[in-house]
Amino acid sequence: MTSAAVVLARCAELATVSASPTWLERTHLTPEHRRANALAGAWMEEAGLRVWQDAAGNICGRREGRTPGLPALLLGSHLDTVPDAGAYDGMLGVLMAIAVAERLSERALPFALEVIGFGDEEGARFGKALLGSQAVAGSWDEHWWSLRDRDDISLLEAFEAFGLDPRRVGEAARRPEELAGYLEAHIEQGPYLEAADASLGYVTTIAGARRFRLTVTGEARHAGGTPYERRRDALLGAAEMVVAVERLARAAGTIATVGRIEVQPGAVNVIAGRADLTLDLRAATDAERDRSWQEIERALLTVCETRDLHLDVVETHRAAAAHCADGLTEAVVAGIRASGDDRPRGLWSRAGHDAMAMAEVTDVAMLFVRCHDGISHHPEESVREIDVARGLDAFEQAVLEVARRTAVAPA
Ligand code: GLV
Ligand code: MN
Ligand code: MN
After folding, report:
1. Position 408 pLDDT exceeds 90
2. Which pLDDT tens digit goes with each residue over 2-59?
3. What's the burial of 341, exposed, middle or buried (CB within 10 Å: 0-12/13-18/19+)?
4. Which residues are placed with Cβ below 5 angstroms of ligand 2, an ion?
5. Which among 108, 222, 228, 395 would be 20 to 30 A from 202, CA to CA?
């Protein structure tokens, strides 16, 4: 039986598959993505699954249920990372899914069991998150092909270089009738389970998110010779914007982050002529998120007016807040109880997850595993072996609970 210790050893092994010798960075459609798929695929095979890479670059494994061709219960998460990542965000969920598939290998289930490692959840390379799961959910948007990475490589070019055929991306899509649901285990990425002294929790809803690329254009001029009244300093405008974003989002009860600024021409004695910023905005509901964006956009335009700057806004990502399905969530709650916790805690997820894309095509539910101090998107991400062990028991029992419910459900 695949133990928590084995799952953690596999997380450590996956964490060595990186584009950088000094930190963990594994983005979409890169050689590291290919190597991670190969490793995860080999572990899926060991667990007795039939393995394939789908038309969007996700690694998939399947074992048939009682009879071949039944709808599949999907267990999954993502294999890509942010730059300088920890070893558990995404990966833990994929490896727990593989372990649960292995544990259940002798069971004849009333559904096929599939494991999926999505190739892009973070959106770290192209700015657009959830590319892997949106392909599977059948919500691919042709506009995404022209998204570009930092090296100006388009998604279309990267797809082809990875050996995928862009014209066939639709083949990754799954139809609702092929699916019995989607379950995802993930580290909490927040401090609430630790504060409640709980190993596990279940997710009620997942935050709605929007991401933007903001380009502030001013005028590059001599840093000495240009009087203040004549300056159109894009970096000063960007700085005011960053502060306004935090102030407005705090007041609205939403969560907004500017994670990157790049300045052109970027010289010590030249006023910045251009600043490119990213903005990530989340809220419990889509309406709150959209209201907050309207306020932020108004404030950014005011900064531009005051400083004679120009603002271009490109929305790079939008994901609706997702509700976890009652039936599957009850199965996760039953799993948490079976792992020894008689007071399962429900949380809303501030982080985005593949489950929000999958909710467009099937019922979803999520199991959260406590992580230390809420640290995530950082190399100090950590989980305890005992929590992973309880998580495996809960995840396995959740699948069996879905099986019980499927068996008694009317045809
Ligand atoms: C994914 O980790 C996200 O919420 O950004
Ligand atoms: Mn994640
Ligand atoms: Mn993440």
Report:
1. no
2. 899 999 999 999 999 999 999 999 999 999 999 999 999 999 999 999 999 999 999 9
3. middle
4. 89-90
5. 108
For 239-309, strand residue ranges (E) read: 255-257, 261-264, 274-283
CB 238 within 8 A of CB 266: no
Classify residue 124 by its DSSP letter: T
> Which domains does the chain carry?
4-206+321-408 (3.40.630.10), 208-319 (3.30.70.360)
Task: State in Å: Cα 32 to ligand 2 middle.
Answer: 17
Q: What are the residues whose beta carbons fall under 8 Å from the beta carbon of 257, sequence distance 6 or more?
A: 279, 280, 281
- Residue 354 beta carbon below 6 angstroms from any ligand 1 atom: no
Q: Is 14 helix (H, G, I), strand (E, B) or coil?
A: helix
Q: What contacts 117, CB < 8 A, 6 or more positions away?
A: 36, 37, 40, 58, 59, 60, 76, 77, 78, 79, 94
Backbone angles phi, psi at 305, to 5 degrees: -60, -45
Question: What is the enclosing helix (H) or strand (E) of 287?
Answer: helix 286-307
Phi/psi at 157 (5° precision): -65, -40
Q: Is 93 in the pocket of ligand 1 (CB under 6 A)?
A: no
Q: Residue 188 CA: which ligand is closest?
A: 2
Tokens (6 digits) for 208: 């709605």
Atom number in ligand 1 closest to CA 122: 1
Given the structure tokens 């292995």, which residue do they identify?
102
Peptide bond into 265 cis (omega under 30): yes
In the chain, % of residues over pLDDT 70: 99
d(CA 258, CA 243): 9
Q: Do residues 197 and 370 touch, judged by C-beta distance below 8 A?
A: no
Tens-place pLDDT, residues 198-248: 999 999 999 999 999 999 999 999 999 999 999 999 999 999 999 999 999
Can you state the angle between helices 286-307 and 234-252, rounded to 10 degrees? 150
Helices (H), 70-227: 91-103, 131-137, 155-161, 192-195
